[in-house]
Specification:
- The complex is a heterodimer of chains A (about 250) and B (about 425).
- Chain A contains 10 helices and 12 strands.
- Chain A is of the alpha/beta class.
- Chain A has a 6-stranded mixed beta sheet with strand order 6-9-10-3-11-12, with helices on both faces. Chain A has a 4-stranded antiparallel beta sheet with strand order 2-1-4-5, covered by helices on one side.
- Chain B is an alpha/beta fold and about 425 residues long.
- Chain B has one domain.
- A 10-stranded mixed beta sheet of chain B has the order 2-1-5-7-9-11-13-15-17-19, covered by helices on one side.
- Classes of the chains: A alpha/beta (about 250), B alpha/beta (about 425).
- Chains A and B meet through helix 2, strand 7, helix 3 and strand 8 of A and helix 8 and helix 9 of B.
- Bound molecules: adenosine-5'-triphosphate and magnesium ion.
- The site of magnesium ion has 5 residues of chain A, from helix 1.
Chain lengths: ~250, ~425
């Protein structure tokens, strides 16, 4: 599904190498987790994959179902099936959440040559999905993320994911800032989307999310590289002992 | 001959090119206005009040030309049951207009000089004259002196339908001057809608006397013909507990100067003036100049102006709140903002407060900014193409000004007009 080979990335206007050769393969139907110390490049990886400005790819490749991602505009990557749940969702004053969701869903459909969703159908689906995530009608009417609490923003990300039904979902610290119940809601939302044709890359610092979303593979990222890959037990090791042991082991 | 022409001042040249309508009750007001104009002279480039807007093309005596766009203008206000009053090249067209006889409102044509309109004689040129101090507005005096046509509206009740001035153009080269007077009696209410391009060059004055407890609503969409030029003035005086709410949408137009002069003279009155403007191209110039005078207790004024400028367009805002001595409990608010879609466009703002009372709350702010890159990326990452995302953010920026239109149907019409403009001006 998602195939990253030797990806090297530096900042566009600074001589700072952030990703130093990332290799990662997420198969359809699988959940991969990435853990790693602050500043190791996890968010950068997710931004570069989704096409954010300000980074320069200096080597390697990234593709989704064999299609080169790095050449595409962000919206084309989205239409191709890539989704990023942001670590820091953006507030957009003046744009209603509902308008935003509908514009996004229909823009993707249009880009894929599919029929647009009617207003009535859209409303029905969005209400149902929102209810599952305990997002009330008022939140749907408000401007995108404006005045949302941290947890509400994260649930709103999952709502977008549920509406867009992407093939490859990247979740960047979606668990941070969530209370125990919200964490469960978000995990349920993710689990509901788990299917054979869909891949997940879950970036997190904590084992707790992985209790709810059982990963198939766990990667440890440090200083711009994946330094270790293992099963769910790797997350438990990090939870118990921190990164020191793992870092020492590969050094 | 050439020598003679050179010695003339621009004011003399302009006056010489026009004919003073005579023979009616407006004679005195017109002669007064002419004297005022001769005293002040037409605006010059060095005038402080014209620092950001070059008056040259507005004061040259020769008419200017503006290509006609044809009929591809999307009809505005079509879904609204209204009293249509049509002007073609600045001349009232009775055949194209609705019957002027309506309940709760009397409508007369200025050009007819109806003899017994005492209220109109008292109002015509009066608010314009008041508005000449402390800042001169010569183009308005020019209008009072020479405007051949316009409507005189007296509102005694609450007419069920809004009045819609619809402007159409048939001639490429045409100057038009219209002077409308509206008087709302105590407790009266009306909505005035205006749309369409008036002329290649338009000089418009609207005087509105809002009586005690009366309410005036105004929604104007300035025509889309790209090359047109317009200098408009709204003069209004508000009585006790009255309301004046005016919104203007401007899309295109090479030169537009919209002045709004508001005088709050009765206690507990509210005046709101707002504008949303979208401009594209280095020859686009749009100027909002507002002057609000608080001369009564516990009044509220609100100015909300938003401009979207791209491809080298220029926007200007000059807004002043003057709170006179004794105008306690004044609540004055002013915001002017621009969204610059490229580095070539510019926004020049001059917000001013002058306060002689001690118990007032006045605030003003002015900002210029670019599209929020993070918001743009967020939208794109959800599959919204960059151009569409930019449009969404642009509309969101303008929304605060459009929100000043209270009526939902009218508000949607304004949003629709802005949306279609953005779609036509893609990229
Ligand atoms: N636009 C930028 N400008 C300057 N430095 C940047 C930028 N983007 C990333 N960096 C730097 O790159 C490094 C990696 O950042 P990144 O946000 O990818 O880390 P992370 O692994 O997601 O960390 P965290 O766990 O704290 O979220 C950090 O040192 C960060 O300061
Ligand atoms: Mg991060």
């Amino acid at each position: 599904m998602l195939s990253i080979k030797g990806l090297k990335v530096k900042l566009e206007d600074e001589d700072k190498q952030i990703l130093k050769g990332v290799d990662l393969e997420v198969e359809a139907g699988k959940v991969h987790a990435i853990m790693g110390p602050n500043g190791s490049g996890k968010s950068t990886l997710s931004y570069v994959l989704s096409g954010k400005d300000g980074y320069e790819v200096t080597g390697g490749s990234a593709s989704l179902e064999g299609i080169d991602l790095l050449d595409m505009e962000p919206e084309e990557r989205a239409a191709a099936g890539l989704f990023l749940a942001f670590q820091y969702p953006v507030e957009i004053p003046g744009v209603g959440n509902m308008t935003f969701l509908r514009t996004a869903v229909n823009a993707q459909r249009k880009a894929r040559g599919e029929e647009e969703m009617s207003a009535a159908e859209f409303l029905k689906v969005v209400r149902a999905r929102a209810k599952e995530l305990k997002i009330d009608a008022a939140m749907l009417k408000r401007p995108v993320n404006v005045g949302f609490s941290g947890g509400e923003k994260k649930r709103n990300e999952i709502l977008q994911m549920a509406m867009l039904e992407p093939k490859m979902c990247i979740l960047d610290e979606t668990d941070s800032g969530l209370d125990v119940d919200a964490m469960k809601l978000v995990a349920d939302g993710v689990n509901a989307l788990r299917s054979e044709g869909r891949g997940f890359l879950v970036i997190t610092h904590y084992q707790r999310l992985l209790d709810h979303i059982q990963p198939d593979v766990v990667h440890i990222m440090a200083d711009g590289r994946i330094i270790k890959t293992g099963g769910p037990e790797l997350a438990i090791e990090v939870e118990n002992n921190g990164y020191a042991g793992i870092l020492a082991e590969v050094a | 001959m050439a020598d003679l022409a050179l010695k003339q001042t621009p004011t003399e040249a302009m006056i010489g090119s026009l004919a003073l309508p005579v023979g009616g009750w407006s004679d005195t007001a017109r002669k007064d206005a002419l004297a005022r104009l001769q005293g002040m002279g037409l605006p010059q480039r060095r005038d402080e009040y014209w620092k950001y807007t070059r008056p040259d093309t507005l004061i040259q005596p020769e008419p200017v030309s503006a290509a006609l766009r044809g009929s591809d203008d999307v009809a505005l206000f079509d879904q609204i049951d209204r009293i249509k009053i049509v002007f073609v090249d600045g001349v009232y067209d009775a055949d194209a207009s609705d019957d002027l006889a309506q309940e709760g409102i009397t409508i007369d044509r200025l050009a007819d000089m109806p003899t017994d309109l005492h209220w109109a004689r008292d109002l015509y040129g009066t608010l314009e004259k008041n508005g000449q101090t402390p800042v001169a507005r010569p183009l308005a005096a020019l209008n009072t002196a020479f405007a051949p046509d316009g409507m005189l509206i007296r509102v005694t009740g609450k007419p069920s339908k809004p009045v819609n001035f619809i402007y159409r153009r048939r001639t490429e080269i045409a100057d038009a001057m219209l002077h409308h007077c509206i008087k709302l009696d105590a407790g009266a209410e009306m909505t005035l809608l205006e749309n369409g391009p008036v002329a290649a060059r338009f000089n418009g004055v609207l005087e509105v006397e809002v009586g005690d407890q009366a309410a005036f609503h105004h929604v104007r969409a300035q025509g889309r013909d790209h090359e047109q030029r317009a200098a408009t003035h709204i003069f209004t005086r508000l009585g006790t507990e009255s309301a004046f709410k005016s919104f203007t949408l401007t899309a295109n137009g090479m030169m537009t100067r919209n002045e709004c002069v508001i005088e709050l003279t009765g206690d507990d009155a509210a005046a709101h003036v707002a504008g949303a403007c979208v401009g594209d191209g280095a020859d686009f110039h749009h100027d909002d100049t507002v002057f609000v005078t608080h001369d009564a207790v516990n009044c509220e004024s609100r100015q909300v102006f938003k401009k979207v400028l791209r491809n080298g367009a220029t926007g200007v805002f000059q807004g002043k709140i003057l709170v006179k001595e004794g105008a306690q409990k004044t609540d004055g608010y002013q915001i002017s903002q621009s969204l610059l879609l490229d580095g070539d466009s510019q926004f020049l703002a001059k917000p001013e407060l002058e306060i002689y009372a001690d118990d007032v709350a006045c605030s003003h702010g002015s900002t210029s900014g670019a599209i929020d890159e993070d918001a743009l990326f967020y939208l794109q990452s959800r599959g919204v193409p960059a151009a569409k995302a930019t449009d969404l953010l642009t509309l969101a920026f303008l929304a605060e000004a459009v929100a000043e239109v209270e009526d939902e149907t009218l508000r949607d019409e304004m949003t629709g007009r802005l949306t279609s403009w953005l779609e036509r001006h893609a990229g």
